[in-house]
Amino acid sequence: MVNRADAPRYRNTTDRPVHHLTVANSRGEAMGYLWANDEEDAAGWCLRPAGDAASFAEGLEWSAKLNAAKARGLVPTAALAELARGTDPRRVSHVVPGSLSAAPSLAALRELARVVTEADDRRLLAQLDRENADAWRELREALAALTDEDRAVRWSEGGQQPDGTWRMSHPLHSERLQRLVRALPAVGAVTPAYLWQDNPPPAVPADGRLGPADAVRAATAVVRGERFSDGTIAQAARSGLLDAVAESLCAWYEAVADGSQDDP
Q: What does the alpha-carbon distance between residue 59 and residue 54 come to, in Å, rounded to a whole number?
């Protein structure tokens, strides 16, 4: 399905109430919402940031279908009705039958899309490699070895060098800190199953504790985020977030290993 730059499109925003359909994956988990408002000729795809990695690509497909409906002159709600009728539950994503509903605004729908479900948590916990005892031992030992000096990450000197070149400052992670960071993907805590770029940055809860699924979210955001922004790991180490992540993951593994917690 080809979309030309000059092809007619529905408006991609509105301040008015919207009708919406739930789009789910083959497991019945919501991936996002198709929404429409006839008054402002507006329609679009609302991603569930807590959803699975396929949600983004599927959203592009559904958006292309909306564009095709606009090109044929359908009003937005008629486009939704057509997509609902033509859905196929055997595909990667489908419209949930009977899911047509209304929201007072697009902003309200986006808030609904941010609600995290138990299915979202289970999907992330399923990414953890409970069979790799060596990796979990390494994570536990790396956490125990971390010192306050490691957490207070220093930065290299930036600016103009003696030879006239310019150098960017960058964080100097200690070997012990690097060891802990390496241990996170080894246990499966850094995963493409979490859409970290579509979610707010992780933070340390007031009580300093993270649930295991939130620990996976934070681990993914911190480790992947460092590739795009130097200092993400340093900030997590300084704030206590990295400790909270590792402590939560280790506690989860110990509970699963001794049978006191069900495997997701």
A: 8
Task: Return the residue matching tokens 């989860």.
Answer: 252
**Does the pLDDT at position 159 exceed 90?**
no
3-state secondary structure of 201: coil
Rounded to an integer, what distance in angstroms lies between the CA atom of residue 234 and that of residue 152? 7
Burial (CB < 10 A; 0-12, 13-18, 19+), residue 208, is: exposed
Q: What is the DSSP string of 126-142?
A: TTS-TT-HHHHHHHHHH
Q: Is the pTM of this model over 0.90?
A: no
Flag whether pLDDT at 213 surpasses 50.
yes
252: three-class secondary structure by DSSP? helix
Rounded CA-CA distance 128/60 in Å is: 29
pLDDT, mean of residues 138-163: 93
Residue 151 φ/ψ, nearest 5 degrees: -70, -30
Domains of the chain, by residue range, sit at: 18-115, 122-257
